[in-house]
Please model this.
Amino acid sequence: MNRLKAVFSIPELRQKILLTLLFLAIYRIGFWIPLPYIDQAKMLKAGETQGGLGDVLGFVSMFSGGNLSQGCIFALGIMPYISASIIFQLLASVYPPLEKLQKEGESGRKKINEYTRYATVFICLFQAYMFINTIVSGGRGGRESWMLDGYDGFFYQATSVLIMTSGTIFLMWLGEQIDEYGIGNGISLIIMAGIVARIPTATTALVWDSTKGELKRSIFTLGGGSAQDVSFEKLVVLICLFIAVVVGVIAITKGQRRIPTQSAKHVRGRRVFGGGRQYLPLRVNQAGVMPIIFASSLLMVPSLLFNWLASSTTWDWASILSESFRRQAYLYNLAYIALIYFFCYFWTAIIFNPKEMANNLKDHGSFIPGYRPGKRTADYMERVMMRITYVGAAFLAIIAIIPSVVSALMGIDPLVANFYGGTGLLIVISVALDLVQKINSHLVMRNYPALTED
Model:
């Protein structure tokens, strides 16, 4: 408690925290403002009955910080901006003009950010059009429109597309304001707030009987249970799983492979400088949560495609593939793991440059004992990174498929299982650790003990 009081006793830090909370509160208010001309009752009912589509909408909403399943003004969330940022980050490593801009420093980064904002608008317009088109057609085969009667014309659809696009642009601006005036990464905090806000709802659906206004009787019994009624032993397993995933995520996120480095000695007059021994830390999970986001986004394409084919045609193979690419299916999880491994190595290769690091060590007069500076050092660091990336990818794969395994084996609702052992929990913990680190830097700078200091 004394350390928490110290956080709010620093005027600058207190102001940053309060402004961040204010911006997140504004985001949560917009989260519940529905789009005009949409029949919310029909949309919610369709999401519950159309299992595949409902799962996809809920899964996308969790990653984006939006609310696709209810169609609010922030329905697309912040994902279009993240997609545009990733595209330009990848292009900056292979497209020479952007690579040159990136090396120009602050002015170059501002120009790339400007291009990213323009790309976000185009991505929003496309995604919003596809979403509104899905609503007009009823989501599956054009059976029933989710728009209000008489409001499915071009003008009303165009209005909804512009509102959704404006909502995402406002969220992008809100994230930038958090970066400038608040504390922490604004975009990450918006995604984290969207995930955390769903946890009480998931917990209530798990243990609370809304019809009787009391705790479900099934949680006081052993054996049995279903997706709606969870027994006592399943609840204990979920709690243990939650604790284990939290501990594992913290351990892997903070885990490092320390490579010893030795600095060369310099003799100046009668004094000897340098010769010290340091460590070069390499993170075990160098790619963060990006491989999971890439893999899950890519797998949504065949899921939606085969789901649409199965509902609009009589082809048997389309129905088989539609079931195979459900989130609990064996083929889906196998493809999920393979894509996570691929994107782990792919993303690490983009952000980690062993040749540049070896040159930096050489320029600063440091070297790795047993390896000559230059190419030998770069090859050694690349081998080390390949090995630890394999471990990091295995950890991400386990975290990613835990909800599917728990849902299939224990009969838990997939959207509930996502919050108690899965990607959502990984994102929340990663962002929380980064936030605590930024708060600690403010405390240590003013000679206060850090929040996580022993």
User: Anything to note?
Assistant: The longest strand covers residues 256-263. The CA atoms of residues 27 and 171 lie 7 Å apart. The radius of gyration is 25 Å. The chain has a mean pLDDT of 78.
